[in-house]
């Protein structure tokens, strides 16, 4: 096992004191190794794995965690460990979720021992709060047409909600938070802060105290790292000059960088996070240009210039469009150069195509709304998948992270297939974002433009008069899309696991980014920024 190194920045308290820095690094490295030894000395290894993952410390222990879960999967396959005398709701649910999240094909049938002949969960489990909570968490790693897990979600949610008034304050807080933020569908590092607050650091068990202290140090270190990243992003953004040109456009570099922080959790991916934030930022600005600034004629010329990759064809365009096109080209070339240098293939042709597809989608929406055309729901959604910006951003992410392929030709084929396939991971993440974005009626506090809504198209096409009914329809679509995404991650044999995890993380970030309150603000995002950066 390679020694753990700590090459992250330290707080100002330590910055000018080499002795304190060395002591801090030594303590941190020592604690990581102490936790590593727990895998040999702790009886309940699954609880250890779950706690480490919830505290976002798992990047230190990937080998140990993989070994534990591989051994568990082998035991399940050979001995049917889930059943018999070991059939406890909490244990089975935890094992099922951990194995599913790690990509193992565990059948939903492991829960049949908790069900009666009618296919319903037995009421004898309704008093088991810990078990119900674990069952609820497990239900969210379900796939399409898994009726047992659908029933598990309904059963556990119903009785957990019913028990809330009867349980004490701390436990009630944990249950309420979990019901709103199931672990599998929530952003890891933000959840780590919440989990840390609920962790009993007063517990005399050595493991709990050790994990608590290590997590506190990690969060402090990563928070400082994120601060430095944001400063670099802001410096790059201000250097473009687009904020001065586009007074009404969004100017939110910290918010944009939150996407990268959510997708790429490993502390050592700082360079990749900063690089990824650049195309993310430009997606927001291009969206604002199409919604707030450009005429149809100028937007058409802008789209053509992007697709031809010709700055020389922009004489007729406003200055802000010229600056934006130049920023798109420079950023794309910077990323392509890095990919070629680090991974041996040049993705420029595909990234150029993704920018062209994005502008085409924006232009279609601009033309619809300029003439008052209301598209069919399916037509709007098909175009909205592209205009979400998700396929374009994930294409850049895929390239930045590298590929599992060894040759440039196979990497190119992977890229083309990944972002042209409606059954792809990218498509599912984009669907979740588009539907959640359109579900809320509130608009971004810095966004006065209007670019349509799936709900409006659906209600008009299918003569639905109730916003509540339409909203329930959309929530069902989101739930089904999550099941597709789970399956895509579970069955993906060609894509790097690091990329599929990043896609999952992108989907997990969506509710935080689009949870507007009555004041058109994003309280969850503000809370997330405060907990991770400040």
Automatic annotation (TrEMBL):
The keyword Methyltransferase does not apply. Signal peptide: none annotated. Residues 240-484 form the Terpene synthase metal-binding domain. One of its GO terms (molecular function) is metal ion binding. Its cofactor is Mg(2+). Coiled coil: none annotated. It comes from Penstemon smallii. Keywords: Lyase, Magnesium, Metal-binding. This is Uncharacterized protein. Residues 11-179 form the Terpene synthase N-terminal domain. InterPro entries: Isoprenoid_synthase_dom_sf, Terpene_cyclase-like_1_C, Terpene_synth_N, Terpene_synth_N_sf, Terpene_synthase-like, Terpene_synthase_metal-bd, Terpenoid_cyclase/PrenylTrfase.
């Amino acid at each position: 096992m390679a020694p753990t190194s700590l090459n992250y920045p330290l707080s100002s308290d330590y910055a000018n004191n080499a002795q304190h820095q060395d002591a801090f690094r030594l303590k941190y490295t020592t604690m990581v190794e102490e936790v590593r030894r727990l895998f040999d000395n702790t009886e309940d290894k699954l609880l250890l794995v779950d706690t480490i993952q919830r505290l976002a410390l798992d990047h230190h222990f990937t080998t140990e965690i993989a070994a534990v879960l591989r051994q568990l999967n082998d035991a399940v396959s050979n001995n049917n460990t889930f059943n018999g005398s070991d059939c406890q709701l909490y244990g089975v649910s935890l094992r099922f979720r951990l194995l599913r999240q790690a990509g193992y094909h565990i059948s939903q049938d492991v829960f049949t021992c908790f069900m009666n002949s009618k296919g319903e969960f037995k009421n004898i489990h309704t008093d088991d709060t810990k078990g119900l909570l674990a069952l609820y968490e497990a239900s969210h790693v379900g796939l399409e047409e898994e009726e047992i897990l659908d029933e598990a979600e309904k059963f556990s949610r119903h009785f957990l909600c019913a028990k809330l008034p009867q349980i004490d304050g701390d436990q009630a807080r944990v249950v309420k938070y979990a019901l709103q933020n199931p672990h599998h569908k929530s952003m890891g590092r933000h959840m780590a802060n919440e989990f840390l607050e609920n962790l009993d650091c007063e517990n005399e068990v050595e493991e709990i105290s050790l994990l608590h202290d290590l997590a506190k140090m990690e969060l402090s270190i990563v928070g400082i790292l994120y601060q430095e990243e944001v400063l670099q992003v802001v410096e790059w953004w201000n250097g473009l000059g687009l904020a001065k040109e586009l007074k009404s456009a969004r100017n939110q570099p910290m918010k944009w960088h939150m996407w990268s922080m959510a997708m790429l959790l490993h502390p050592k991916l700082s360079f990749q996070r900063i690089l990824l934030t650049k195309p993310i930022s430009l997606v927001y600005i291009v969206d604002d240009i199409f919604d707030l600034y450009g005429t149809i004629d100028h937007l058409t010329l802008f789209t053509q210039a992007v697709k031809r990759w010709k700055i020389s064809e922009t004489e007729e365009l406003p200055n802000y469009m010229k600056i934006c096109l130049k920023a798109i080209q420079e950023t794309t070339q910077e990323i392509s150069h890095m990919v070629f240098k680090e991974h041996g293939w040049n993705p420029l042709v595909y990234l150029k195509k993704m920018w062209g597809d994005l502008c085409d989608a924006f232009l279609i929406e601009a033309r619809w709304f300029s003439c008052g055309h209301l598209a069919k729901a399916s037509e709007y959604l098909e175009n909205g998948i592209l205009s979400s910006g998700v396929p374009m951003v994930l294409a850049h992410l895929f390239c930045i992270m590298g590929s599992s392929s060894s040759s440039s030709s196979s990497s190119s084929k992977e890229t083309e297939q990944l972002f042209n396939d409606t059954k792809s991971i990218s498509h599912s993440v984009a669907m979740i974002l588009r539907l959640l974005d359109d579900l809320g009626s509130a608009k971004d506090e810095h966004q006065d433009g209007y670019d349509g809504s799936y709900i409006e198209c659906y209600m008009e096409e299918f003569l639905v008069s109730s916003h509540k009914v339409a909203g329930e329809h959309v929530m069902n679509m989101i739930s089904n899309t999550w099941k597709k995404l789970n399956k895509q991650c579970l069955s993906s044999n060609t894509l790097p696991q690091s990329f599929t995890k990043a896609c999952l993380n992108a989907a997990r970030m969506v509710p935080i980014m689009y949870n507007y309150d009555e004041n058109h603000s994003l309280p969850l995002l503000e809370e997330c920024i405060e907990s991770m950066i400040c």
